[in-house]
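Re: your question from the hallway

Yes, I did run it. Sequences:
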Amino acid sequence: MSATVSATSTSATSTAARVDPVITEIVRNAVVAISEEMKTNLMRTAYSMVIYEAQDFTVGLFDAKGNIVSIAIGLPNFIRGMSDTIKAMLLHYASEGDNGAMAPGDVLVTNDAYVTGSHLNHITLVVPIFHEQRLVAFSACMAHWADIGGALNILTRDIYSEGLQVPILKMYAAGEINKDLLAILRMNIRIPERGMGDLHAQTAAVRTGAKRFLELIARYGAEQVLSSIAAIMDHSEAMARKQVLSIPDGEYSAESYMDDDGVDAGKRIPIRVKVTVAGDEMTIDLTEVSMQVKGFYNCGEAAGRGCCQVAFKCLTSALEKPINEGSFRPLKIILPPSRVVSATKPAPMRRWMTYPMTVVDTIFKAMAPAIPDRVIAGHHADLMTAAINGNMPGDGKLFIVYGGLIGGGWGAKYGADGSNATICINDGDTHNSPLEQVEAKYPMVVERYGLREDSGGAGRWQGGMGTEKKVRATSEWMFNAQVERVYCRPWGLVGGHPGAGNSVGVQVGDDKELRFPSGKVLGRLLKPGDAYILRSGGGGGYGSPLDRPLDIVEADLIEGYISRQKAEACYGIVFEGASSRIDRLATEAKRAKLRSLSGAIAERDNEDPLAEEAALLEAGNEQSKGLYFTEGMLFPLRCC
Amino acid sequence: MPSAPSFRVAADVGGTFTDIVAFDEASGRLVFGKTLTTPTRLVDGIVTGVDKAGTSVSLARLFLHGSTIAINTMLERSGAKTALLTTRGFRDIYEIGRINRPQAYNLFFRKHQPLIRRSLRFEVNERVGAAGQVLTALDEAQLADIARQLHELEVQAVAILFFHSYCNPAHELRAKELIEQWCPGTYVSASHEISQEYREFERTSTVAANAYIGPRIKTYLGEIQERFAREKFAGSFYVVQSNGGLFDVAQAQRECIRMLESGPAAGVIGARAVCERLDLDNAIAFDMGGTTAKAGVVLERQVLMAGNIMVGGYDEGLPIQIPLIDTQEVGTGGGSIARIEEGGGLRVGPQSAGAAPGPVCYDLGGSEPTVTDANLVLGRLSAGNFLGGEMKLNFEKARQALSSRIAEPAGISLTEAANGIIRIAATTMSNVVTRVTTERGLDAGDFAMVAYGGAGPLHASMVARELRIPKVIIPPSPGHFSAYGMLMADMRRDFVRTWFRAVDKLDFAEFESLFGVMEGEGIATLARNVPERERIRCVRAADMRYVGQEHPVEVELPASLFEARDPAALKRVFDDVHMQRYEFNAVKEPAEIVSLHSTVIGMLDKPVTSAIAALADGESRSPTPSSRRPVYFTESGDFTDTPVYDRAMLLAGHSIAGPALVEEYASTTVLLPGDRMEVSRYGDLVITIARS
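Structure:
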């Protein structure tokens, strides 16, 4: 059967006049509710902890051209991935009929990393929604499968070593499942029952979205629903333009860096962004972001463009629902190919999520002079995960678990301290795993999960605190950490100090902790009694620490969020002798003197307790020489 | 001569009103009282309300109570100075929480704020492993040192959370014993007493909240007891829990947190009672008041339950992990404000004008048009007959506000604006019903809707249309329905205990003995109030999942499973439930048990709802309207001359075709064109919704 694949009219100005504001609002509520229902549906039936607890997925509705109508996160940084994937599918099935055409009952699939912009674990399913033989919309779902094949415990150097690649195909053609593809999937992934369970859950979610969308059309008519959607997008565009208009025109740029690509140890990766605001339009130029790298820290263009849209949304329409394409119309993005955020085949992509977070942070940094009350200081900007795998002590079954996801410090902003122990910007409603469950399921005991005192950058408003988690093995397993931003610490704004950087450590038995020259530790075998320690960074501070009210500093001391040493070094506090009481007069005098010395704050920064942390790191550098890349230490995995 | 106590009195204390419903066993009559809540001394309002209902505390044989005091103490942060004792290494668990950012793009997002500050969270040297094994013994000397600090700090309440206490509570029990001994007068609560499920953050939050609200609620319930004693009350005093069951006041003082959602829970219990008397299996309980609308589900005469709630909302709230009736809520009520957004969108809620200043038509200073104002302009509410005429509504002000703030900026007529507002409100509320039905694999079209709360009867038929719900029931006195539901509740104890086990290796002897322990404890607790063993019913269920899955489903375990002792049979029951719930299962995959649920119910005598006066043979089935007025309906596209009926005048067997309005003291039922209403023998308005 053939159906017309034609985009519906989205000519906003012609439809807007006929649109009923009441129906528009009803449709707006409905598309948000449909995408939320898809999300709940997926979460409740998913097998992988990555989907259920970590919420590493995104679902949504799209118009007939693949533009976002409403997405429910999931994963905020995947904001472009599904839309771009649908656009690629439209192109694929439009070309000369070689691929057949999309038809009712189809469920399309791909995990092409250069299309989704992310890694191969992200399986995207798409249902083209037909109404009376006309393509009216798409329902789509991306979810992270715990495994997609490929090599474990190594630093991959190309896409082929990262697992099975599924081109754009039909998982279901007119309602019939593609058994050949299913067999290929089953054969190529470890723990296939999980993958198959997640496939079921995803299929149910996209079909639910399609069903609900057709119910909406049945109730209000296709033209009303589609013109309401056009009106919603126009409305979001108008709101966003108004916000951009309120930003002073100008060119704003900023720079930061990543520690390294895991291959060329210690070679910094520059992240340079340029933002131009002119009237009600903003242009983000990522031309000067580093070229793609050898290690698996690349991501595709969809993610590169996605991080610009994430930053833009945070600054212009943070709470606006539905998340839709209209909001992004005032944003132009310049992103040539082959950058680290627009990588081309066969660049390795497994840790696709890491660099874009720093790009987002750097855009905020660039905009700080223009809109100091709307931006935020740097955050820890890493998922802080530990990829762990091994065999269960009892039955020897393979287990794969994401340790970590410990949250970290967020930057301070005008009017408020940064958030403590909160997931990085790549993720949204992502949860850590209950430790009692981790201990019941896997051979490990958690010894500590707490706030990292002093880790928040000092400031009038203090950066949020990072966390520290220490986990001891009770049987042998492999530990991998791919943590970034150890050296490029979350920066402060407007005179605020940087927060602590991220770090990773390993303790062999009860020996002194081994530190590593970066946060990248691959294929490290932990024996019973050994432990790993993840420490997430704090957020950057905002404003001069010398302006932080003494009552608040005092409260932080009482609650144990900061040490006496930090109060003295960073906040200019003078105590009454050895007591814990602040000598207010002496403190004011000291603060006045410090204020009069230009550059004093930067000097103070060198004295803060984090300097000690840096020294430790250097020591670790020496101590752990030869342990850096341990690809050779492969652990024999038995798949059962 | 004073008569013997024959009343069962239920009091539902809400933020604005205290509602009383009392049942006289001697006459079989229900009486009602409504009075303003007296925040400074809540018991005064209760006594006044009971008097207003035409009875007195001394005539009560049974006093049933639900209150918003528990949730308000949490939301207002007006609880006790509380400390937390926790396992070494984990004092920040409560503050770290689950690290999520539900407002993913909001740079100014604020996460939950613990009820206990960091300097009052103490780490204790002790550790129990996941299998219940002691890894580090409890350090009693260190505990003594902490107790001294608690004393110096004048801490009023102590919460105790030790890891894995759900499988081995010994350390929590011992620590509680010692703290009670060393800090007399302190309210001490251990996590396993409230929740025996894994998830250390949620359990911490639950026990912390219990300790935090404990002293205030203990005092409050004590005050009621004292005052009632002075009023010569000689009956039993039970409190409604969030699971819809009752518990003894003494236990309520120890486990206060279980009162959290007593009002909403009682409403759903009332809806179940309506199902029983009208012989319905499935119903959606729909409660709409001034600021929110809530929905719960009765499925095959069983109320659907949930395992936790976020107090203060999902984004920033604190989780409470207890069994409770699953209700979902949306910020749409009579007071919800309508406004035109920048860019022209018409939005309704979640901002609410509340009780003060209230809707514009209340004429108490409100200037932003609300759902109630829209209803007035459409003729659905009467300016002269609101609250039985006790409160006059200002039609002109409502009309002006809707014109200038909605109709003109949106470029639509006043009627379109007002009608648009209630249509939007209806779709928003239909989405909350969807959250308790379709999202649980249920089809709302298979349910009747029992609508109550002051605004429920006004909007229920519109909500039902959105969801293809065929039947709407408005029970008598919908504004007192939660208090009525309390009268229909049983004594109940729920236990949930985390117990990870593979189904294929299940040791049935151990499995059954664990249920036996929970049931034994439940029966012992209830025996004080329900001594007859034949009135006690035990229900067993388990949370189960396929190995590798995260989210379990609750599976009821029939007694036959324990006779057969066959793991394969248990697996089949689970496979079936999974199929029913999610439309797929994995018969070949192994399954595991996550938690055991034991419910022990002590059945109480219920009021027998008496029939109302019925039509005599040969009398016309059509009642006479008390008045007529023009009312706007979307279906007719214009104002239609509509009959208005006084509910008090309706007899069983009466039948009315829409459009029509039925007015009573605190609410108005709207019957839409095409719908038909019958009065049941118990006085329920049973509306058959037209198929569109």
